[in-house]
Design a protein that fits this description.
Blueprint (H helix, E strand, L loop, with lengths): L9 E4 L2 E4 L3 H14 L2 E6 L1 H7 L3 H9 L2 E4 L2 H9 L10 H15 L2 E6 L2 H13 L3 E6 L8 H11 L3 E5 L4 H8 L8 E4 L3 H6 L7 H5 L3 H8 L1 H25 L2
Parallel strand pairs: 3-4, 3-8, 5-6, 5-7, 7-8
Antiparallel strand pairs: 1-2
Helix pairs in contact: 2-12, 3-8, 11-12
Length: 249
């Protein structure tokens, strides 16, 4: 993949890139990057900030991203405390669904990679029924020796949008390893969004989203999987934000 096009209004938060973009600006930039090809989007949230402290490959992925959104409300709050205020939260699932909504009229080719076999199949069927040109899909369960075949399948379909429902940092490492082989317009990690689209998980009501408490709603649905990420991780993130703020005095 070629070097990323500099994003507009890029700042640094905890040493990682943060683009000060609204949802509308993010959609516009994503479409420009699709046309240029060979780019990827990063989602900046509390979990990524903490993981990047000990993962140089994750930091490399973030730095080389062509667009890096304030994916979590905690990032929006931290950005304002630390003097680089993000205009709003641009959640990965909302941006993902907007790009999918616009894909039929733009003629964008879409590849879905990740999640369980039944989940990704359901998402592919859902999107195809809406007129999206789904040029391929497969689940996220493959052995290390199968990765080259997965990459070849993606590259052969030449997607404009590659949506990856893989956990972090697996998806970031996957993109970095295969950046020169994937041949996509824009690679885009979507976390657990396939589970929501397929109906396996429910998304928080809009009023909870607006309060910045969507993480709490997700935690209630998957407490065992998310306890470390949200309860322990969020506490660490708050302490890191305060430490960074007071270190500037």
């Amino acid at each position: 993949m070629p070097e990323s096009t500099p994003a507009i209004r890029r700042e640094r938060l905890f040493g990682l890139p943060l683009d000060l973009l609204t949802m509308a600006e993010s959609v516009e930039l994503c479409h420009r990057l699709v046309a240029e090809r060979g780019h990827w989007r990063a989602d900046l949230n509390a979990s990524i900030v903490l993981a990047a402290l000990d993962d140089p490959l994750l930091r490399e992925y973030m730095d080389a991203s062509a667009i890096s959104n304030a994916d979590g409300q905690s990032i929006v709050w931290a950005s304002r405390i630390l003097g680089v205020p993000a205009p709003e939260r641009v959640s990965g699932i909302d941006l993902f669904l907007e790009l999918v909504r616009l894909a039929p009229q733009r003629g964008d080719r879409v590849y879905l990679l990740g999640a369980a076999p039944d989940v990704v199949q359901a998402v592919a069927g859902n999107f195809a029924a809406r007129g999206v040109n789904v040029v391929g899909y497969r689940d996220g369960y493959w052995a290390p020796g199968e990765e080259s075949a997965v990459v070849d399948a993606v590259a052969a379909s030449k997607p404009d949008l590659l949506f990856l429902a893989l956990p972090s940092p697996r998806k970031e490492h996957f993109v970095l390893r295969n950046r020169d082989k994937l041949d996509v317009g824009l690679a885009f990690g979507v976390g657990g969004s396939f589970d929501v689209v397929s109906g396996r998980l429910k998304r928080a009501p809009l009023w909870i989203q607006k309060l910045g408490l969507e993480w709490c709603y997700r935690f209630i649905q998957e407490p065992r999987r998310l306890v470390k990420r949200y309860l322990v991780g969020n506490t660490r993130f708050v302490l890191l934000t305060l430490k960074t703020r007071f270190a500037r005095n």
